[in-house]
Amino acid sequence: MKYSLISLLFVLSLSFTACNQTKKEKDQTNQFDRTGKMYEMIPETTSVFWTGYKTTDKIAVKGQFMKLEFENIKAAPTAREALNGIQFSIPVSSLFSNEESRDTKLKENFFAVMDHTDFISGSISVENDSVATANIKMNGIEKAIPLSYFIDGQMLSMQGSFILDDFNALAALASLHEVCKDKHAGADGVSKTWNEVGINVESYLKVK
Predict the structure, then answer these.
(1) Cβ(162)–Cβ(142) below 8 Å
(2) Element (H, E) at 47
(3) What are the strands, taking DSSP E only, across 127-187?
(4) Where are the alpha helices (DSSP H) in 2-138?
(5) Nearest of 205, 183, 206 to residue 193 by alpha carbon
(6) In this structure, how many other beta carbons lie within 10 angstroms of the beta carbon of residue 79?
């Protein structure tokens, strides 16, 4: 009986150790890129693209902002921690869509109609390994915009969208539509400028 009790205690000890080891490995797996290295976003490699839509067929109109300003850039032991808390400011004057007349209309008949929107500003909050939030301030209003993101090697990609109603920007949209009415007419003869805007951010993460 004595040997049976010792054997039982030995088996239980092994089971507890194995369970502890499995939990430890699982916890380490959940550390998202925690490899002993440090991650840091590089502002010079970061691009912010936007997508608007026209006609009832919802044809995409794409462009980007050529100038970006960042604060609170930091090195951190995970990519998630490195991205969390980054602040940004985007001059709308740096808007570029590869068509000068369109750029002029967007600056003068859209952003200029808004309140205090020489810059689009905000910050990034990272919730988990695939979901983040861009806290964007535009037209005097701040809104949280959900973003999905993934990291492939050292390349970061973030995507999301929002509606202009959330920023009380329908007057600016109507102003833009008025000067773009002819170009926003589709095959059905209906002119439409959508209130939806897509966002795509691409950046390179330095690992050291």
Answers:
(1) no
(2) strand 47-54
(3) 131-138, 141-152, 155-163
(4) 2-29, 79-83, 100-109
(5) 183
(6) 23
- Rounded CA gap, 171 and 99, in Å? 23
- How far are the Cα atoms of 70, 101, 116, 178, 186 from residue 189, in angstroms, in the given order? 43, 22, 35, 15, 5
* CA–CA dist 25, 8 (Å, integer): 26
Q: Which two tokens stand for residue 129?
A: 């390994």
Whole-model pTM over 0.85: no
**Under a CB-based contact definition with an 8 Å cutoff, are residues 126 and 150 in contact?**
no
Confidence (pLDDT) at 37: 87
Measure the CA–CA gap between 165 and 150, rounded to whole angstroms.
28
| pLDDT at res. 153 | 86
pLDDT in tens, 173-202: 999 999 999 999 999 999 999 999 999 999
Could you identify the residue written with the tokens 């002119």? 191
By DSSP bridging, strand 141-152 and strand 155-163 are antiparallel
With the C-alpha atoms ordered 180, 184, 189, 190, is the resulting torsion angle positive or negative? negative
Which residues in the chain come in under a pLDDT of 70? 1-35
